Structure formats: structure tokens, C-alpha cells
């Protein structure tokens, strides 16, 4: 399971948004975007205060591209972290300035919903002082969820959206 294991998922204490945004901006340097030339950096803050960065990684087979947000989330989950407080995203044309607001794509919103509840803060940033702050419920209303796929866990066929 994802966020169900988080003990402090409703931790709404403030965090350093400028630092998280700076990490996303810096991460952009490692984006691999030879096809779109749109480079994206993401910085994911865990409940323990760690930051996992990610970049978009494109592929000659275009559909194999991975977004910066998912790279950061998958890095963190693959190292045992599943409780997240916030993510900052910074994206724009490789050569162009200023940056645009890079809002998460639909697949990334779905991946966020696997691990994050509505206390999760999403920052689409152009710089440390210019960002849009969002919640998952704004970006993914009526998102798809499964309670559990395991009958051992008492899965009753409901998908968690009925209530
Ligand atoms: N991209 C991201 O990495 N994150 C977003 O929020 C939007 C889009 C990437 C995917 C692709 O490599 C490039 O930006 C252009 O779509």
C-alpha cells in the first residue's frame, strides 16, 4: 500500500518552499530532452525532510519518455520512501527564458494519487518567488483508486471511490 503506511501524512507544518524550488531548478540541468527540448526538474520532499530530485528522460521511441515528477517519485519509492509532503516542478524550453509553469501531466497526477493525500503540496515554479501552488484534489478530482488488490487484505471489489 502507499500512503496508508504514513503515520504523519497529515503533517501540515510549513517547509522551505524556496529551497525545494531551487532544487527543482538545479535538477533541470540533468534533464534528457533531445526531442522536445523542454527540460523539466522536480524536487520531492519526504515526510522526513529529504529531497529526491528527478528530471524528464526522453527516448527515441517517444512514448517511453518519463516525466521529471515520476522520476523523482520512483526514485524515492525505490529507496523505501512513501510519505511525501510536497513536490516542486520547474520546466521550460532548453534555451528559452523565462520558464513556463509546468503543470503535472495526467499520468503523474495519477502516480501522485497513489502515494499522496490532499495535504500534499504541488508547486509549479518559474523561480523561487513565482510559483503556482496546488492540491491533488484540484488537479485530479474523482481520481481512480483501488483499496487493495489482495483478498487477504479483505478486498471486497470496491475501489475506494464509493463513499
Ligand atoms: N514533462 C515533464 O517532465 N513534466 C511535466 O509536468 C510536463 C511534461 C516532460 C515530458 C517531455 O519530456 C517534455 O516534458 C515535453 O512534454
Could you list some keywords that capture this structure?
single chain, 4 helices, binds tetrahydrodeoxyuridine, alpha+beta, globular, 163 residues, five-stranded mixed beta sheet
Descriptive account of the structure:
It is a single chain. The chain is of the alpha+beta class and 163 residues long. It is 22% helix and 22% strand. A five-stranded mixed beta sheet has the order 2-1-3-4-5. Strand 4 and strand 5 (130-134) form a beta hairpin. The two termini are 19 Å apart. Bound molecules: tetrahydrodeoxyuridine.
Produce the secondary structure layout.
Layout: H1 17-27, E1 38-46, E2 51-55, H2 68-78, E3 84-93, H3 106-115, E4 121-127, E5 130-134, H4 136-139
Parallel strand pairs: 3-4
Antiparallel strand pairs: 1-2, 1-3, 4-5
The protein binds tetrahydrodeoxyuridine (THU).
